[in-house]
Amino acid sequence: MNENFNQNQNQNDDTLENQFDRENINEAENKTVYNSVQYSPVESVADYKPISKGLKVFAGILVAVIVLSSVCTVGYFIGRNSVKSSPSSNISLDLEGKPANTDEMTTAQVYEKVNSSVVGIIVYNESSAMSQASGIVFSKDGYIVTNDHIYSEVPSAKFKIFTYDGTEYDAKFVAGDKVSDLAVLKIDGSGFTPAVFGNSDEVYYGQNVVAVGRPNNAFDASSITRGVVSAVNRRVQTTSSYSAKLIQTDSAINPGSSGGALVNMYGQVIGVTSSKLASVEYDAVGYAIPTTTMKRIVDELISKGRVESRAKLGITYTAINSVTKEIGNYLCEGLLIGEISQDSDLYGKAQSGDYITQINGIEVTSDTVVLDIIEQSKAGEKITVTIVTSKGQTKEVTVTLRANISESSYKTSATQGGAFNFPSGE
């Protein structure tokens, strides 16, 4: 009987032991851990001990270093890309059309709207050469538009900018262009008030306008003068000896106003005031560079440091109209070619003494016809030129326009400069 009891007891013990083993196996299966590298199951350890405090600290530091390095690396590439793209994103400018069904502002209201966007400029150097001008805030991050001629008599020029509230800033020269007489300066900072630029193609004869600038002193508050648009797209010889199509106005543009704003009565800047026709025979004649020209030039000055898209034919010429043809007994009307630059695509296709009588099938009745076509084109584009040779033979050639890349009036030489009489350039 004792033997049976012992046998039964042993069986019970075996049963309990087997049940306990099965429970342990099940628990172990439920606790199976997989190695993250080898993807193989490893035994769960019953007497697991936590990682030591020192090892935890080391692991934390290692993770932090890895995360920080990753962030810095990503930040570097994002930052590098943002620096390259920031000019185009920060200075993107769309010319606004004239508001529809809106009454014109009063002169006082226009001044209130534009005043915070017009600045005074002191141009100076260590040799005591100094001049004064005006400028227009182009972007929130401190790009300033002004004229290129303002520093032409001040070698190694430095710049002080005075905003509407009297705050003084140092400015850096960005780029300038003699042909258009436009330049860009830059002050460090943000939150500046850019002007609202209107579309100068909408300007019309007799339109009411005002000129805002610093005619007397760059330190003083901007002044305002009122007038009308006397002429639209008037082609004139600028102070830099280049021909340009400008807005003519009888608004007073006095010395120091160069680089200021010509504004319509909706508070939109439609031109950058430039050279005044300085002659005793004329009165109340001032000029402004249209915003359509300004936008194209300034965008390239900021993004590329120079103008690259502007086209040229590459010749010198004498314009022969119907009157001069009869007086001078010339062969025909058109452009009488003087010299052809070797970098011109017309070189070898025409010669001195030939006449250009048509461009793209349009009769050349004056040089304005040719200049208008070229200004509306871009470097690299092709035009068709009809030529009458000095012997009276007619031929037609295709010419690729070259890039008209000009230099700025900005000089870094130590030559002593003098005061500049704005805005006539004399």
Please compute the radius of gyration using only Cα atoms: 38 Å
How many individual β-strands?
22
- CATH fold assignment of the largest domain: Thrombin, subunit H
Q: What is the first-to-last residue Cα distance?
A: 137 Å
Mean pLDDT: 80
What string gives the helices and strands in order?
HEEHHEEEEEEEEEEEEHEEHEEEHEEE
CATH class of the largest domain: Mainly Beta
Main sheet overview: 6 strands, antiparallel, barrel
Percent range for β-strand residues: 25-35%
- What is the count of structural domains? 3
> How much helicity do the residues have?
10-25%
Which structural class should the secondary elements be placed in? alpha+beta
Q: State the strand order across the main sheet.
A: 3-4-5-8-7-6
Question: How many H/I helical runs?
Answer: 6
Q: Which shape, going by the Cα principal axes?
A: globular
The CATH architecture name of the largest domain reads Beta Barrel
Low-confidence stretches: 1-59, 65-90, 415-426
